[in-house]
Structures are given as C-alpha cells and as structure tokens.
Amino acid sequence: MNISKVLISDSLDQAAVDILLKRNIQVDVKTKLTPQELIEIIKDYDALIVRSATRVTKEVIEAGKKLKVIGRAGVGVDNIDVKTATQNRVLVINAPDGNTTAAAELTCIMILSLARPVVAACSKLKTGVWDKESFKGTEVQGKTLAIVGLGRIGRKVATCMKAFGMRVIGYDPFVTPDDAQKFGVEFMDLEQIWPQADYITLHVPLIESTRGLVNSVTLNKCKKGVKIINCCRGGTVDEKALLEALNSGQAGGAGLDVFEEEPCKFNELLEHPKVVCTPHLGASTKEAQIKVAEEISLQFLTLMDSDSLNVP
Ligand code: NAD
Ligand code: MLT
Prior knowledge:
This protein is of the alpha/beta class. It contains 13 helices and twelve strands.
C-alpha cells in the first residue's frame, strides 16, 4: 500500500510522528479541526490517524478521495463510520493492546475509590476541614466483583482485584467458563450476575447488544447498594436510570470515565455525591499513549510493506 501523506487529527504521542517520518512519510498534525475543516482538507491525505475526539463520519470518508486507511490509536472504533469506510475500500485499523493496562488500572482505582471515599475526603481536607466522621469506607476483600466483558481489560481487572481478595464473577458471550476460570473468574449468565454483585464493571464495546446494558430493569435486579463502574463506553449504561438508582439508594455509587455524550453535560449525575468521575482518562497514561502511538504507526509500516494488501 502506498502511503505518502498522513493526517493526525487528535493529540497523539510524538512516537507516531517519528516512526512515520523515518519512512519519509509526510505527517501533518492538525488537532481540534471543526468537522467542516476536516472535510475540506482530508482530500489531500492517504491516511488519517485519530483517537476518540475526531468523528470520522460518512462525509469525511467520502471527501477523502485518496484515503486508504484510517488508524485509531486506541481500541474503540465507534467514532469511525466503519460501514462507509468499507464501502469506499478504506481500511480501518486500531491499536488494541497499548492501553489495556491503563484502562484496567483506572477501573481498579474507581472500584477502590467507591469503597473508600478518598476523593471526597481529600476535597474536604483541602478546604481546611479535618472530618474523620463522614468518610468511613468499606473493604473490598470478600466482596463480589462482576465483570461484564472478559476481553483484554476485563481479564486484567480480574487479576488485579483478585489480589485484593475479591470474589470475581463474570460474563462474556465469546468466552467459555473454562477460559474464564484460567484468570480467576467464575463464569455465569447475566441473570445470575445481577443479584450477586457488590460491584459491576463493564468492559464491552458499544454495540446493539450492549447499549443500555445497565438500565432501570437490570439495576432493579441488583443487590441494593450495588456500585457500577463504566470505563468502557458511554451508552452501555443508561445514565438517567443510574441517576434514579443513585437517588433511591438502589445503587450505592458509580465510577464513570465515559459518558453518553462527551464532554458530558449531565451535571446532576457528575455532581452526585456518590459519583466518582473522570473525563475519559482510561487511556491517559504516558506509557499507554506511547504504546498506542507506536502500535498504530508500526501497523502503517506493515501495510506499506505488505504485497497482499494491494490497494492502488
Ligand atoms: P476487547 O475486545 O478485548 O474485549 C471486549 C469483550 O467484550 C470481548 O471479549 C467481547 O467478547 C465482549 N463482549 C461483546 N459483547 C458482549 C456482551 N453483549 N456482553 C458481554 N461481553 C461482550 O476490548 P478491551 O480492550 O477489553 O476494551 C473494552 C472496552 O473498553 C472497549 O469498548 C474499549 O473501547 C474501551 N476502552 C476504553 C478506554 C477509556 O479510555 N476509558 C480505554 C481502553 C478501552
Ligand atoms: C479506547 O477505546 O482506546 C479509548 O477510548 C482510549 C482513548 O482513545 O482515549
């Protein structure tokens, strides 16, 4: 595949640029483009690299007359219209491994922050109030953690939280009970999971079968006080239903890194005292950003060297 000019439209580690430049590829980094600006300039490029901010719509793809490949420096390709890309013979590739550890570690931080109100206690102490009474937590040891989606991140979360003495149960339609057992997860159906879990963490793609997976019906099947963690994709949790459950006490807390709309404007949810939230920081570590930048640009080189992918 011939790639001579690449546009990077989201902030990405310099490692990606360096790797591409070494192969004499022209690289332009232009972030924070409006949709219209992207549509206007995309016609000049053979390839586009994005993270999650750029929406690679039908219009963008159709305007990219020379476009051969779209690279996603991360896992989820839900910001890319893959169907239109395929129809236009534009290859969509991702970098699925580089941010696994970062996303799993943030998930564990969310679980622990819901058990021990470190964030709220710290905020209060910074205002000068030494309050030892309001912030009694709970231990995670002996509690049941349910992991829905036992892929790369789900498995890593299982391993980490087993070390804290949690009982880990889980579900994934493409994983067998025997495989789940290998990384310490008791496999069961969702219907068995809801009433048993003290914490439920989702690690699934946003697809039809996972949209609104945590909703008013499933929340009501859970133990009173269940804690919900979403570090995968907004839309897998029905935010209005979650807020109602938090207000009624059916949910005892939520750790949210991703939202139905980003940036999230649902202030009632963000400001809720039982919510710990971050602005889509799952992959935001120095290490993960270097790894995904390298992973995606090295794939570009593989494509360039590949005879079998003879895209004109
Ligand atoms: P993965 O593909 O390795 O794992 C996803 C798993 O979900 C797969 O095992 C799949 O079989 C399973 N699955 C699919 N449909 C399911 C369903 N209906 N019920 C239960 N399981 C189902 O992906 P991953 O690398 O583990 O990433 C998981 C998610 O986390 C993705 O959505 C990704 O975009 C997101 N992510 C978010 C951040 C962040 O910054 N917050 C960082 C990295 C990844
Ligand atoms: C991903 O799917 O990899 C994440 O959303 C990470 C990101 O790009 O920030």
